Amino acid sequence: MASKIQQAQEHIAQAEKYLKTSLLKWRPDYDSAADEYNKAAMAYRNAKQLSECKDCLLKCAECNKQNRQLFHSAKALDQAILVCKDLNDFNSIRNLAERACHLYQQHGSPQSGAASLDKAAKILEGNYPQESLALYQSALDVSMIEDSSRQATEYASKVARILVKLNMFDQAADAIRREIGLHQTSEAYGAIGRLAVALVLVQLAREDYVAAEKAFKEWGNCCDPHEVQTLESLLQAYDDEDPELALRALSSPFIKHMDIEYAKLARDLKLPKGLQAPKAAVIENATASYVSPSTGGESSSTAQTPPADDEDDEGGLC
């Protein structure tokens, strides 16, 4: 390990020498310096000195940029992103990915730029979903500019799912509609049908039942028969305030096997409360309570024996 560190230091010293100018050398040799910094970074990486490795990669990227080698500069930043992941330096990843994407675009490789943003977003998605969302949105914008519908559809799907994960349902509904529009261009009607189910779930999460029914009427013709049947039952359950029917519809196998974010959304969806029978109205003091005439403390429920009739004789009536 010590030899690797020494080797890296020698490469750094050589790189600094290439960057110096003199009376006979007016311009730094950025190409040679970038190569030396890259070798130093590899040596530091083998020596498990990741912080120094990152610094050398950033210097390599800068030298390549100064030498107008934009693609190689972006590649060095991509490597720095992976080193930041190993260092748990997540705060630097978004900035490096955006810089790399910009360099790729300047070089004329926008798809590589979008891929760099996608790679960084995957690293951040678990712990920093907001940062990941911003990177996926940038990747989507780059793909839309380049008219790459396949990549754009993929990034639009990731944007929508993260918005659902963050409970940002208003934005999620817009993102799903955008994704549906991208699938329309490729006539992927099966995918549109599944997204129609997702859009209905999101609208129900927004507690906008009218919008949920409208989404089904607009895109339900792209759904499979079992999807149509489930959505009809689900919407009927919310219309009738029937929680049991809603729960059965949300427990449909195809809903449980949707993307994890939509499956969780269906699981946690607020069920209708259900209609309760009105309670009978009670009129207070409508009838006076029975009070026993006995003062001896006898129960009011004890039946009173009527007095014997004096006019009744032993033989009865003649």
Which segments are poorly predicted (pLDDT under 50) over 5 or more consecutive residues? 275-292, 294-318
Mean pLDDT: 86
Q: Estimate the strand proportion.
A: under 5%
Helix content: 55-70%
- In DSSP terms (H or I, runs of 4 or more residues), the helix count works out at 15
Question: How many beta-strand segments?
Answer: 0
Gyration radius over CA:
38 Å
Largest sheet: none
The run of helices and strands is: HHHHHHHHHHHHHHH
| Structural class designation | mainly alpha
Q: What is the global morphology?
A: elongated
The N- and C-terminal alpha carbons lie at a distance of 135 Å
Essential attributes:
318 residues, 15 helices, 68% helix, elongated
What would a concise description of this structure say?
The chain is mainly alpha-helical. 68% of the residues lie in helices and 0% in strands.
Overall description:
There is one protein chain. The protein has 318 residues and is an all-alpha fold. Helix content is 68%, strand content 0%. The chain is built from 15 helices and no strands. The protein has helices at residues 2-19, 30-46, 50-66, 70-87, 93-107, 110-124, 129-145, 149-165, 169-185, 189-205, 209-219, 225-240, 243-250, 253-256, 260-268. α7 packs antiparallel against α8, α8 (149-165) runs antiparallel to α9 (169-185) and α9 (169-185) packs antiparallel against α10 (189-205). The N and C termini lie far apart (135 Å).
